[in-house]
Amino acid sequence: MENLTMLTPLKQPIVFELEGFYIPPGFGPLLFFLALLTYLVVLLGNGVVVFVIVNDKNLHRPMFVMVCHLLVCDLLGATTVLPRIMMHFLTGQKKIAYIPAITQAFFMHTYGVAVQTILAAMAYDR
């Protein structure tokens, strides 16, 4: 006889609620605009510097390549956090399901490890 285990979906999925993240009424659109502006500045600023490093052959040295990797990691970090925060500001929704929360935590920790690794390599290169 075989022991078969059936996986059944949860009747009530696991949901986390952001309790300590209070936004006063009426400030959501303003905070969304500020977060969007910050996100665009991060994307454009890092994108321009990466573009310059990639296109200028004089900057193809180890330290500038590591700076380029650090900028790409910063893009990953900003993309991990800011879109969810902007959605929270715009909709006021304070809940996040388990799978998106774990996915966001995974990418945030991956970003942290990548940045620390690049900084360690930059320090060793000096």
Structure, explained:
This protein has one domain. The protein has three helices and two strands; from the N terminus they run βααβα. The protein has helices spanning 28-55, 62-91, 98-125; strands spanning 15-17, 95-97. A two-stranded antiparallel ribbon has the order 1-2. Helix 1 packs antiparallel against helix 2 (62-91) and helix 2 packs antiparallel against helix 3. The mean pLDDT is 87. It is a multi-pass membrane protein. This is G-protein coupled receptors family 1 profile domain-containing protein. Residues 45-126 form the G-protein coupled receptors family 1 profile domain.
Give a quick rundown of the structure.
With about 130 residues, the chain is mainly alpha-helical. The chain is about 70% helix and about 5% strand. Helix 1 packs antiparallel against helix 2 (about 60-90) and helix 2 (about 60-90) runs antiparallel to helix 3 (about 100-125).
Task: Itemize the secondary structure elements and their pairings.
Elements: E1 15-17, H1 28-55, H2 62-91, E2 95-97, H3 98-125
Antiparallel strand pairs: 1-2
Helix pairs in contact: 1-2, 2-3
What class would the helix/strand composition place it in?
mainly alpha
| Overall form | flat
Strand order of the largest sheet: 1-2
Number of domains: 1
Radius of gyration: 20 Å
User: What is the number of helices?
Assistant: 3
Q: Report the uncertain regions.
A: none
Mean pLDDT across residues: 87
- Helices and strands, in order, run as EHHEH
The total of beta strands comes to 2
Helix fraction?
A: 55-70%
Query: How is the biggest beta sheet arranged?
Result: 2 strands, antiparallel
Strand content: under 5%
Distance between the termini: 64 Å
